[in-house]
Structure formats: structure tokens, C-alpha cells
Amino acid sequence: xxxxxxxxxxxxxxxxxxxxxxxxxxxxxxxxxxxxxxxxxxxxxxxxxxxxxxxxxxxxxxxxxxxxxxxxxxxxxxxxxxxxxxxxxxxxxxxxxxxxxxxxxxxxxxxxxxxxxxxxxxxxxxxxxxxxxxxxxxxxxxxxxxxxxxxxxxxxxxxxxxxxxxxxxxxxxxxxxxxxxxxxxxxxxxxxxxxxxxxxxxxxxxxxxxxxxxxxxxxxxxxx
Length: 224
Known about the structure:
alpha+beta, Beta-Lactamase, 2 domains, six-stranded antiparallel sheet, 6 strands, 18% strand
């Protein structure tokens, strides 16, 4: 079909059909570039001149999906602070929102419900995270009822959250993963990380998770 005949055929089409054709054409034309991007590792993204052309949100989404997969979890997310400053200082005026979130297949997103939360209501959760203790295989063992009820309402059974501090030592983000409707499963984690059962070490797994969260936090501050 020639270009002129294509234009004639589209004259009577609705705008969204025209847009769909335009989008499909561009995806086809840039299919190789798209494929290359999806295959990039974290290290490759930070090399050379490619970093400035990658949208930060897409990159962070990729990192969150990676940590979700490595953890065998159902949801991964980032909470950040606001209302006058972008870090948590313990004052009641500070609020937090879920600014980034990815979910597995069939899992309901929660970010839209986790906006502008008063940090004063979740002081236990924040403190537990800041001290690297927010690692619970079973949320029934959580002592703080506000945190426990909030997690139950989201269907969470297991949770892991790590803090991210900026160069000044201020808490600027909480990065976590949830297991929804089921507890974390060691076999799934081992499989996703390509490890044998004999290689399991819970302390090392916690270290891997914290380091991954640190990398995600660094990406938040990276100049794209």
C-alpha cells in the first residue's frame, strides 16, 4: 500500500485509530533499540553516554522489578517524604507517599492509596525500617497494631523494607517488597537467584536486599 492510499484510508478513521497506527509504526521502526534497552543490566546503564537518554522513571521501574524478582515477591515500591522538605526528621508535619511501585501479575497496585500519609501515624514502621529491622516473614509477629492493620488491609503476609539515607545522613526514602496473600518462600528466592539449597544464608540474603535498595536509592539521585 502506498503512502497516499494509506492517508486516504485513514481520513475517515477516528483519532485513536490514527494514533494506534502511528504508535505501532514507531515501535516497529525502533524495535532493535527497544530490545537493546530491555536487555541492559544496571551496570551497563551507568556506562558511557546512555544514561542521559534513559527516562529515570523507566530505569527505576526496571530496578524495582529486578529486586521484586530476586526476592520472589509480589510488589516492590519506594516511599519518599515531603511537605516542606524531602527527608524525614521526626517532626509531625512530614508526610510520605508511595512514589514508585511495580506489581506482579494479578496483584492489585496500592500506590494510589498510599499518598500523603502522616508520618506520625507510622513512626514505628519508619523507625523499624531505619534500624534495618523491618524484615518480617509473618506480619502476625509485628507488635505495632497500626502497621499490622495497614499491611493486612493490603493482603500482605511478609515484608522487607530498607532505608535510604542521603550523603548528609538524612532518611530520604524507604524501599521495600511485599509478599501478597502468601509468605515469602525460600525455594522461590533460591530459584530466582540461581542458587542451591545448600547456599541459603538468611543473613546474606538480607545484605543482598539492603545493597540492592541502596542502588535503587542512588538511582533516585542520579542526574539523567
